[in-house]
Amino acid sequence: MLIKPAGSLCNRRCSYCFYTHPEQRHRMDDEVLEAVVRRVCESPGPLQFIWQGGEPLLMGLPFFERAMALQARHSGGRPVENVLQTNGVLLDDDWGPFLREHDFLLGVSLDGPRAVHERYRPGSFDGALEGLEVLKRHGVPYNLLAVVGQHNVEKPQTVYRFLRDLGQGWLQFIPLVGVPEAATAAQLGDFWVAVFDAWQREDLGQVHVRLFEDAAAAWAGSDQRQCVFSERCATPVVEHDGSVYACDHAVDPEHRVGSLLSMTVDEVHTGLQAFSADKAAPACEGCPWHFACQGGCPLHRREGISVLCEGYKRFYRHADPALRYLVWLASHGRRPEELRDAPALHRWGRQLPCRCGSGRKLKSCCGVHPAES
User: Fold this and answer.
1) pLDDT tens digit string along 235-288?
2) Which of 43, 124, 147, 192 is deepest in the core (most CB within 10 A)?
3) How many C-beta neighbours within 10 Å does residue 235 have?
4) From the candidates 111, 214, 248, 320, which is the catalytic residue?
């Protein structure tokens, strides 16, 4: 369950943030906190709390100490997973031992090297790096999340290698949509392709990139993907007052499902089914890549088509041979690192049927292979 205990309250003013409401200074009180924890712990599935914002660390350490005590009281001894997304600036040696003791996984926002990061997130680069040092010092695992926009889309491999060298092997690139700072779909496609090539050559099997993991899952026939690429929307968000919304990008009356003060988690998921119907994308019927993107996020569509469609297609066409080879390797008990052998992949991939439906092999149709670009 995605939980925003401080609502949109944040200690930074990133120019591209879709969730900035400086006039709102909400905080989750103890009554709502206990209700949320109890409801989540009553659900039959895995117990996962994803703390997000705004900046959730603004709630202070005592709030999270109370949350951990409530989880211990209501979980019945079942394992509980806690994930927290932060800009990293508030992390210090008080937070470090607590996060390690309770096995938190952190996601830290970092858009690339200093000049890139500071363009839309001014004054936060040094604080983010100091926060990473706190996590390393106390053995707290973390992922790095980069927002991709006009500030970094033309520097794909520079950004990728910078984050790779700072991270612990888990990266996520989140495209900006619907704001002046957003990159075009074509730019994003080129960004993803360039990062994919660097990852394939240098880090496959060692570094995990969320987009590539989701694509590999699609090629393997699995729906275990983030909500953007799944058949159904399935990430409800709980606001500071216990209200539940269908998506953290749609905190509005139209997408309000109810409240955890009066609903069970099962009832929340039942209520989400009405919004999941929006995931259908009739305009995408017949597209050879629909199985991978599922039409993208409904909130990103204009006239029924995702504004990122061109970028997705560019990436999927480029990565298709490699992803098919990766699935083949897995099915034959072979190591994914073999995918780094670009000449072997090139020879193997050119014989595949093109996904465009022409019936011709990739080598004589519209497929683009990493070794050729």
Assistant:
1) 789 999 999 998 888 888 888 999 999 988 888 888 887 777 667 788 998 999
2) 192
3) 16
4) 248
